[in-house]
Amino acid sequence: MSAHESGAGMIRSILGTLAAALSLTACGSNHAMLAERSQSEATHLQGYCARAGLNNAETQRADASLASAAKHLKDGDEDEASVESDLAGTLYRLAMARKDLADVQSQVELLKKGLAKDKDQLQTYQEILGEMKSVRKP
């Protein structure tokens, strides 16, 4: 083997190692990017819940998970940060869904009361109509 072939093999080996290192670095940065994205989404949901005036067990637990995610991300533990951020986002969504459910149930109750009132009014009108028909008969 000539010196040139030996040098070329060494360069290939170094380039291969460098490429592998860059691949691993890219994977690591993807984990960090995904964890940051998940945390950003949870932070956005936190703001929405705050503007909606939601403060309950779900939002409090989500706040704690989001704080934990920030700490994990700062410490370089992207996987745990991602898990905590995902949990926070899910809890914020649950809080919003429960609020929506309560709002819809309230609307349904109002509609039921309105319907009952309309039925009573209809019955009254039908009774009046029946009396008027009986008065008109000779």
Question: Mind sketching the topology for me?
Answer:
Elements: H1 3-51, H2 57-74, H3 78-136
Mean pLDDT: 84
Task: Please state the overall shape, judged from the principal axes of the Cα atoms.
Answer: rod-shaped
The SS-based structural class is: mainly alpha
Q: Nearest-angstrom radius of gyration?
A: 33 Å
Order of helices and strands: HHH
How many domains comprise the coordinates? 1
Percent of residues in beta strands: under 5%
Question: How many strand units?
Answer: 0
N- to C-terminal distance = 129 Å
Helix content: over 70%
Q: Characterize the biggest β-sheet.
A: none
- Stretches with pLDDT under 50, minimum 5 residues: none
Task: Describe the model.
This protein starts with a helix and ends with a helix. With 138 residues, it is an all-alpha fold. The protein has helices spanning 3-51, 57-74, 78-136.
Please name the defining characteristics of this protein.
single chain; 138 residues; mainly alpha; 3 helices; 91% helix; 0% strand
Report a brief summary of the structure:
91% of the residues lie in helices and 0% in strands. With 138 residues, the chain is mainly alpha-helical. The longest helix is centred in the last third of the chain and has 59 residues, at 78-136.
